[in-house]
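Tutorial sheet, problem 5. The two components below are modelled jointly, 866 residues in total.
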Amino acid sequence: MTLPSPGPLLQMSGMTKRYPGCLANDAVNLTVERNQIHALLGENGAGKSTLVKMIYGVTKPDAGTITWDGQVVNIANPHQAQRLGIGMVFQHFSLFETLTVSENIALGLASAKERVGLRERILRISTEYGLPLEPDRVVHDLSVGERQRIEIVRCLLQNPKLLIMDEPTSVLTPHEAQALFATLRRLAAEGCSILYISHKLEEVRALCSVATIMRQGRNVASCRPADKTVRELAEIMIAADLSAPTPRPARAAEARPRLVLDRLTVRSSHQFGTDLKDISLSVAGGEILGIAGIAGNGQSELMDALSGEVLAGRPETILLDGQPAGHLGPRERRLAGACFIPEERNGHGAVTTMTLAENALLSGFGQGGLVRFGLIDVGRTIAFAERIIRNFDVRTSGVQAEARSLSGGNLQKFLVGREVLQDPGVLIINQPTWGVDAGAALAIHEAIMVLARQGAAVLVISQDLDEVFVLADQVAVIAGGRLSAPVPTRQVTIEDMGRLMGGTAHVEV
Amino acid sequence: MLKFEPRGAESQFWRYGAPVLALLLTGVTAGLIFAVMGRPPGRTVYTLLVAPLLQQDGLEALVVKAAPLILMGVGLSLAYRANVWNIGTDGQFTLGAICGGGVALALPDAPAWGLYPAMMLAGALGGMASGGLVAWLRVRFNASEILTSLMFAYITQYLLVWLVTGPWRDPMGFGFPQTALFSDAAQAPRLIAETNVHLGIALAPLTAVALWVMLEKTLLGFQFRVLGQAARAARFAGFRETRLIWVAMLISGGLAGLAGLLEVTGTLGQLTTTLSPGYGFTAIIVAFLGRLSPLGVVPAGLLLALTYLGGDAAQMNLGLPNAITGIFQGILLFYLLGCDILLNNRLRWTRRGRMAA
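Model answer (C-alpha cells):
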C-alpha cells in the first residue's frame, strides 16, 4: 500500500466530446475524493456514459485534462486505466455463459502469472467483501446479481483505487441491491473510491456522499444528496424545461376493450428465456396500460407473443377488437389494426443497412397502397417516409439515408412515427425511450398519449418506472413471466411497484 | 501499421471498384503462379483472357458458354440475397438436363412445336424438384442447405452416370456411355442459323432483367432483401421465412434445371456422363462477381465464360493442365470476397506506440 498523496484522487476539467450531430460532453468537470462514494446523476443521454468512458480509456476526449493521483494522465485504453487502478463494472456484463466463475475471471487477466492461486484469491475477496461466489459454478446457472458479483470481484483482483459502477442496480432486486450497498460502503472505507452512475434518486441519497448532476452534456449541479429531497434532486436532473404531461380526462367507463389477453402461456424458445404464465389483461380504447418490471422477466417474450413473431397457440388467447388473433402472424395482426414497436431498433424494428424509405415499407407495406399488384409504389413509399420524418421531427438527410446513419433517438422517433401514422387501433410498444435523448423521449411520450386520446388501446412495456408512471392509466408488473393484476396508476406507489418487481422474480424455475 | 476503419456508410466507389480490384489482383497472382511454373506470365495471361476472343467464332463460343452461367448466376444472386446458400446448382442443372432429355428420348417422333416446350418445362421442373427437396429439408429439419444441396449435386451426378451407362444407354452407341442423339425436333431453337447461338442466349439476359425487376421493384423481392439483411426484422414485418426459402430454392433450382436442358439441347444433343464442367460451382463465382445483382451477373457470366475458353486455349497452345481454369476461378472468388471489406471499411495508416503511455 502506498501512502495516499494529498489532494483528490481524480480530477477532470473541461472534458469535451463531440459526436457527429451531438455534443455529448461540453466542458464537464468532475472531482472524486479519496474514500468517497460519488454519484454521477443524470437522465439517459445526459452524458454520464461518455464521461466515464473517457475515464476508463474507452473514448478519447476532444478536450480537457484528467489528473489522477496528482499526475496529469492521458488514458489511451482500458488496459492502461486498469494499470492506473481504475476498475469498471459495466451495465451489460461480458461473461461466457458456458464457463465457470473462475474461468471467466482468468480470461480477463493479462498474464498467466496472475492466474497463480486465482481460486483462493477469488474466495478470499468474495468472503472479505460479502460477495458470495462459488468459483466452480457455471455462469449460465447464476442469477444476474451473482453475475454482477463476478464482475466486481474481477475488478477487485486488480486492487483498484477507483471503481466505476454503471447503473448497477438496474438489474437487481431490492434485496440484492442492499447487499451491494454494504459491499460498496466497505470498499470505500478501505480506500477504494466509487463512482456510482445512476438515475435512481433514493439509492443515491442513501449511498453517496457527493453527487455530480449532469444534463444535456453539462454539469448542472454538485451537492450532498442527503441534504436534498428526492423531488429536489429530480428537479435538478430533469429541469423545468420538461413540462409535466397534460392530465387526460378519465376515459368513459364503458369504453370497449380493444386488446384482451386471456391466460397467455408461452414456453420460451430460448434456452435461458422466461416462460410466460397465465398472463391476462384488457386494454380499452383510449387507455394506456403500462407493464413495469426488471429486465429479463419475460418482457421480450411477451412482446414476441403480442406481435405474432411467436404464436400463442389458442386463437382466443389474444383478442384484437374482439377478433381471435392468437394464431395470426404479424402481418395478419397488422391487418386487424395492431401496430408494434419492438425494443431493439437495429435489425428488429429497422433494417439498419436499408434506407428510411425501405424501412417505412417494412411494416407499412399493407397500408395506403404502398404496394399494388405486388409492385412497390416508390412514390407513395417515399411520401410516407417523408410524412414520418416531417411529423415526428426526425433529423436526417432524407428518405434515402440509411437507418444506421441516424442517432438512436431519431431512429426511434422514425419507428414510432411509422407505426403511429398507420393509425392503429392497438399499439404495443416495448421500451419506448430506451437509449433515447430527453427531447426525443418527450416527443415519443406525446405521440403515444395523442394516439390514446384518439381512441387507440396502448400497451407500454418499460423498465423505466418514471416512464410508466408518466404514461399509464393502469399499471401492472411482470416478474418471472407472470403479470400482476393491473391497478390504476393513481393508486400505486413506487414502493408497491418495487415490492412486486422483487417479489416473484427469480423464484420461478 | 495498416488498419481497417469502419466507414459508417457503404462506399459507392468500392461497390463497383472492389470487383475490378479483385480482377486485377487475380491477374497479378495468376501471373506469379505462371512465372513460378516457368511460363512467361504476360503471354500466358494474354492467352488465357484475350486470345480466345480474337479467334474465329470467339464471340459465339463466349455467349454459348455464358448463357448457362448467367441463368444459374441470376437465380443464385436472388437466393444469396436472402441468405439461402444454394451451393448445389450443378446438381439441379444435371437433373434438369436428365428430365428434359428424358422427354426427348421418350418421344423421338414428337413434333418440335410441342416437344421442345415440354422439354423446357420438364427441365425446369427437374431443377425445381431438386431445389425443392433442399428447401424441404431446411424448413422441416433445419438441415443446412449448404450441405444438402452440395450432397444432392453428387447424388444427381451418379444418377446421370447410372442412366447413361444403364437403362438409357444408346443400343447403337458401340457401348459408349451415352444416350441416343436427340431428334432434330428436340434441339434448342437457333437464333442464328448454322451457329450454336440458341434460345438460351436470349433467355439468359431476359431472365436477368426479369429477376432484377422482381428483386428491386416488388414486395416479394423486398422480402428477400430484408430476410438477407436482418432475419429478425423480416419476422417483425411478418415475412414468412419458410415461404421465402421455398421460393428462393425453387427459382434458383428451376433456372439451373432450365440451363441444364438448354445446354444439352443447345450444344451436346445427347446425355453423356459429364454434362457440366462445373458450371454450377462457377455460377457461385458469377453471382458474387455480379455483386449479387441479377444485372451484374450478365457481365460476370461473360467473364467467367472467358476463363473456360482461356483454359481450353492454354491447354492446347501452352500445354498447361486444364485445372488452370479452376485455379483462376478460385483465386478470383478469394479476392472478390476479400475485397468486399473495402465496401464498409477504409484502410488507414496509423502509427503505433504513440498512443500507449
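Marking note: Chain B has a mean pLDDT of 90. Full credit if you identified this.
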